[in-house]
Every structure is written in structure tokens, then in C-alpha cells.
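Might you be able to check the C-alpha cells below? Thank you kindly.
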Amino acid sequence: MKLKRLTALILVVAALAGLLVVPAYCSDSSVPFRDITDSKVAEAAEILRLLGIVNGVSPGSFNPGSTLTRASFCKMALIASDRGDEAAAQANRVVFPDVTASHWALGYVNAAATAPSTDASPLVRGSGDGKFWPDKSITYAEAVTILMRMLGYTDSSVGAGATWYSGYLSNAKLIGLTDGLTVGGSEVLTRANAALLFSSLLFTEKKDSESLYITVLGGSVTANAVILDTDATADDGTTGSVKTSLDTYVTDRTTFSAELTGTRGKLVLDKDGKLLAVRPQKSDTFKWVSVAGTVDADYITVSGGSKLSVSLDTVVWKDGKATTYERAWTSLKAGTSLVFCYNGSGAIDYIFISDGTTAERAIVAKSKPSGTVNPFASLASGTSGYTMYKNGMTASVSDIAQYDVATYDSAAKVIQISDLRITGLFENAYPNTTAPSTITVLGMSFPILSSAVTDLQSFKIGDSITILLTAGRQVAGVVSPSAARGTAVGLAQVSGTSASVTLLDSSDIVLTGKVNSSDVSLDGRLVSVSSSKVGYLTLSALTGSSTYGSLNVAAGTLGGKALARNVRIFEAVGEGKLSEISLNDITLSSVSAGKIVFVRYDYANRPSIIVLDDVTGDGYQYGYFVFTEAYSKPGDDADSPFDDEDYTATIAVRYGSAAGTESVTETVPCIYTVRSGAPGGLAYTADGKPAGYVELKALRSLTRAAFNSKDMTLSTSDTVYPISDDVQCFNKASNVWLAPGEDGLEAALAFSNNLMVYYDKSPEQGGKIRLIEAY
């Protein structure tokens, strides 16, 4: 039977955008043996070192080209058999006349010459003259024979051949023990080849067993796992651990290469459950790219300009958790580093969103750049062909400004530049101000890099500071607000005298603190944040301003200024919930200045964040109103009007869910009157109050011919109406809801040729068809 062999590899990351690669060995500078240049040998030697099977000839040296004596190989074999403790007991006798008490390996040779059980063979035998020749260099055939015997093979099980070792070598090749080695049987064995052989032994099945040899040493190999972080902190606080999709593992290796992040493989564990190595799945191939253009529901434009097709149900690893592309694609911005994993059939198995922006090293452009010399070039350590992104857009040297921060993603060959900065009070440092690992500003704790610790010494707790953040939200520098400022703008959540503000620049930054009780009116509102007292936030509501000018949707300009390519657009209904939309969601050719609540400009004075007030009409839940009028209920004392109970009017909307079943929004008090059962839409504030409502208008007596489900339009004799992507669909004849959107529309058209639709506004005003009824 041909046995399976698992090769102990570390995945190499060929960080070449657009290049598909097969897994290979990865040379890791953390391997203690600095004189090994072959990555496969280096990895094998490191695994054996961690298992205690080999040591170097001196600190940091393995001497891979030298040979091994027969005695030295015996010692390695005994330790790899978990029989190293037998050496002491075997050192009180002489088996071979040339291995006496004066020889350092007496116990090891004697133990190797002794069968461990009645049904096993000794690992070694003497020469024809009865001697062992311990200091003679061991040959390749002798070494392979010993390892085969460790696996349970004997002279009789391997069969005879032209030489005494022919059967052992042929069977070793058959089971994969000697894969990758082309050495003659009589050639002496180098230390490098010995490491490869022993490493291969660990991941070869024992004779007549499905157990890998590493189990003899108490080790194990897990199922496939995605490598999420090679510099994680384990539950017990051990740093430098490896976080995977299975668990977080402590390791005795100095480090695992960060280039493993996003790949997957089987994990090799020692008897204590510590991670020894990562073995790739041979059928996997990986592609390292960065987002370099449009991202849509079915494709990603990546570095090199190609578009990679992606299905909505593709698994995506983001922030250490598995999700789907359907949930994650809207968060992908230009410059984001990705790892695509393709299975053996060439299909995408998963996408890993790399946090390549998190780094141990960052550079701050503290001096005003010249515009011609790149102050961040040293991050790439002389590597050429890298790409620069600033705030998610491709950038050139001329785009670099004073106090910008840069980090380098070596896997994607990308320099990430950030001009994100926050100004607030220096509230705390952990564990101390002298050597902090985190600092707190505006109620949020930020990791601080060593490059910023020196800056921090110029400030004390309570001072106003500006922190300069990497794209990974690490503090790379600290300066006075007089040198640089950053205005924090975000969505407020206020409860009592406590508030949190999620920034528009980055949803993973949430500022917290105490506020005035009157600030509860700002709950769910867009605010700017500052502070004048440690632990407290000062919130200011942002309202529309005609100074921004109008938004020309077709031209992609605001107030005459071209929009940034990575512009983010948000919309809310009055004081309702804020949601992100795209420019394509706006059917108007132009949005008036009065509908523009807030604009943030980037380093090139391009609008990069825009907040609109109810422009698309998509902020409402459409369906049928469920309305209850205000009324009074007489109390127990009919003669006393003061005993009456007053009930306010309430409103909700019943609608069709994605599953095609009826759902009802939260019932809330309202101050307006609508007809219950009438078609309409309702928007909510962040705290569940009505933010606005709209009553729909009807178009009657329509046939299938008026609809184009592919383009999602409805044509009448004089008007073309866009149909909402989330249009509600109701089978009036059967009193059954259909799934929203295109599927529901097609089901309604298939059911009947008699249809009625409802719209919110005319197309010229940005309206769409919101509800379809089939009769």
C-alpha cells in the first residue's frame, strides 16, 4: 500500500500582484541557523531543533554541508524514536568492540542496537567484522534503512535486491520518505540531507498504520486552517502566537513569517500543542492583490487592472471572522490588500482581507515633502515596483503632505499612506507614559508604535494633542494641535449623559465620553467631536450649508470640484439613520445645496465624504401603513374625566421580507395621520422614533409589456420610471408577499397581466417605483 506523506512546509508568499503561485518553502529569517541558505533545509532543521532532535554545531550555525557520523545519527534516531532516555541505562555494557566506555555515544549506539520490543528490529547492526565504526560518516543507504526500521519495516518486509539496502531504498521511495532527494546509496549523508530525511519521517505514516510518525513524539497534525495573524496574543497572554481559524497557538519559534497571513494549511503541533509548522494543501494556489478600482457585487478590480469575478456566497475572512462577499464587498476600498485562495479546480475558495496596514514600523513625514523625493521609500527596503495608496487611492510622490503616515505591506508590495489624524485631550497611557503600548484620546484606546513614544514625552495627560494614525489605526506620531489638527465627524449615539460617536472616516474608530444631558437631542445625528475636559466629549450638530454648492451627479462634481475617486456618500432621512449609498443610487441629475448636510475634502481639495438629506428615497421601509389613531379610554370612574386614559397615535409598516413572508416594522408613536392600509414608507431615527414618512402615488391598469425586469424600469406613454432594487411585491389576488426586488417583480409578472404600482416621486424628482401589486 502506498502511504501518504505530509511534507512539513511553510507557505511562501509570492507577493506578485496578478501572479498565481503554488505553495513552496519559505525562507524565514527567524530560523536560528543563519548558515542555511536552502529554505527547505532551513525549515526542516528548525522543526527538528524545536523537537530536540538536532542542535547546531555552534550558536546560529548548522554547518549543512558537513557530514554526520554513524554515532551522531544513532543519537538523532533514538531521540526521534522517543527513546533518548534509554541511553543512560545502556551505557553500562559494550555491544561493539569499537564503542567502549570512552566513547560519548556508547549508550545511544547500544540502545539503537537493541530491539525495543520482541516484534521489532534493532535500528542498527554492526559491520561484517563485528565493529560499528561510530566515527565513520554515515551513508545515505544506512540512514534511510534506520528510518525505515523506525517506521516498522524489516528486512523481510522490504524484500531483497541487488544490494543489501535496495529493498529499503525502493520502499522508502514508494512511501514518499525520500521525495525530493537524489542521492546514491553509498554516498555519505550531509547534515542538510539528514534534516530533510528526519523531517520527512515525521510526516510519513507508520507501517500498516494511518498514524503519522510525529505521533510517536506526541505531536499531531490538524485539519486545514486559515492563518489569520502571525503575531497574535494567546489567551494566556503569550505574544508572538499564531491565530488561525481553528484556534490561537503558542509557538517556540522566534516568529512565523507575516507572509503566511491569509494562506491556509494543516498545522503541525508538538506534544504540548505548540505550533511547529504550517503544511500547505498542495492543490491550493494563492493570489496576492490589492483593490485598484471599482468593487461591485460580482467583481473586484485589482492591481494590474484585471477584474476578478466573485460570487456573493464566497467566504470572506475579515477582522478574524468568516463572513460572505455579499456582506463584505461594500467595505472594500482602493488599496485594500487581499489574498485569493483557489482550490484544485481553480474556483475561489475564500478571500482574505489583509490587515497589511498594521505594522511594527511606520514613517511620519514630519518635514514638508519636496514633491519629488519619496520620504517613505525606505519602508520598502530597496524593493522596486511597489504601489502607493493614500487614503485608499493610488498616489504619487506629489500627493504626500507634511504629517502623512506610511506603512508597508510587503506581501502586496504596497505603501499605504494615511492622513487620518484626531485632535483631543491626552486622557491616559497604558501601562505608563514612559513606555506605553496604548494611549487614550477622546475615550478610545489606540495602539502606539515606538516611533510615536518619543513624541509623546513632550506632552502630559490632560494636554491637547493630535495623533497621527496609520491606515491600521495605530499611532505613528504625536504633534501639537498648532502643527496639525484633525476634526472628528461621525454618527452620535447618546444615552443619558454618555455618548459614543462612530467616525465617518473609519467605522472602527468609536469615540466615547460623558456629555451634557441636553445632548440627548443629538442621538442619531451627525456631529463633530471635540473635548475640553478629560473624559468628556463636546458634540456639535452638523446641518446643511448652501456654501457647499450643488452636486452634479452626471459630471461627478460638487460645487464645481471633481469628486474624489474613492468618495463615500451617506444619506439620512432628516434625523434618521445614516446609511452609505453610491452615486449610482441617485437618479437625479443634480442635488441642490440645501440637500447637502456635510462635505469633507481630501488632501487635494476633492470632496471625499458627502452626507445627503433624503435624496434617493431609499431610506424608507415601504409597504402598507399600520396606523392607529389617538384616542381616550374612559376610566373606572365614569363621572370623572380625569380618570380617562389617553393613547397617542401609532404607526408601523407591514412589508415583504427576503423570504417572501410578511414582516412588520416597530410600532412607534407619531404626530401625523395616515390611512391604515395605505401604501407608503416610514423612516426611523437611530433610537427608533419616526424620522419621516411618505405616502405613495398609484399607477393603475398596467400590463407586463410596460415592465423591463432586466433594466428595472416601467414605461408609460410619456414617462420612464426607475424601479427600486428593493421594490416591494405583493400578490393581491392570493394575499401573499413575494420576495423584494427583481425576483419578486418577475414572480408578479408571471402571475398576472393586471398590475398596479406605487411610486414616491416623479422620476424628475428622483422618485422610483416602490410597491407592485399583482391582481
